[in-house]
Write a structure and sequence with these properties.
This protein is about 65% helix and about 0% strand. It has about 210 residues and is mainly α. The longest helix has 29 residues.
Length: about 210
């Protein structure tokens, strides 16, 4: 269990670095922006891999007894989690995480951004929350609590970064823009449901736990 807690601490520290503006600026000056991003990305991936191995090797220490009905919590919450993830990743979003260029964002047709500013982060938080009820052991609760905390604190952190980057006037205009789903495309919704179906199908084979209660 010690290794898992050390990996969790490393995860938190690795995400604290860019939050400390003076430290981030000093590292960028010393390393250059590209080198900083490269090294930070490598470190982040390394910490995630370590976290995964530490979790897999952690001993089972029960906090509460498993109940079959708790699987339904996961089954239900994973639907919006998968949909928000795919819609968020494939919707232009100057305010949060996205694989699409922010330059293609149309404030008159904001799509999911018009309702939920940080869909990808909320997807991660929902995923963590969905897996807590059926996993009542110290290792699982520690990991999922960490991811839930990231999901809850992420929006505030990203708001601060984007506001600094865009400037107060532009950020406020975008953040308080049109509250509408207009511009939301159908294919990310379908891909989100397809992701859910895929995860549901392969979960038992990969994780070793069947999603449905028997």
């Amino acid at each position: 269990m010690t290794e898992l807690f050390c990996a969790i601490a490393a995860f938190i520290l690795s995400h604290a670095i860019p939050a400390i503006k003076s430290l981030r600026a000093a590292l960028i000056r010393a390393l250059g922006f590209k080198m900083y991003v490269t090294l930070y990305s490598m470190m982040s991936v390394g910490v995630l891999v370590w976290l995964g191995f530490a979790f897999a090797n952690a001993p089972y220490v029960e906090v509460w007894e498993f109940r079959e009905w708790t699987r339904w919590v996961t089954i239900v919450l994973m639907v919006p989690s998968c949909v928000l993830l795919m819609v968020g990743l494939f919707s232009p979003n100057p305010l949060s995480l996205s694989l699409k260029s922010a330059d293609t964002f149309d404030a008159s047709r904001p799509g999911i951004v018009g309702i939920i500013r940080h869909p990808v982060i909320w997807a991660i938080g929902l995923w963590a929350l969905a897996h807590m009820p059926p996993n009542g052991d110290v290792a699982a609760l520690s990991l999922f609590s960490l991811l839930l905390l990231a999901g809850l604190s992420g929006p505030k952190s990203l708001d601060s970064k984007r506001r600094s980057k865009l400037g107060d006037e532009n950020w406020i205009a975008l953040a308080q823009g049109k509250k509408s789903l207009r511009g939301l495309k159908i294919w990310p919704l379908i891909s989100g449901l397809a992701l859910y179906a895929t995860l549901f199908h392969i979960h038992e084979g990969i994780i070793g736990v069947a999603p449905l209660p028997y």
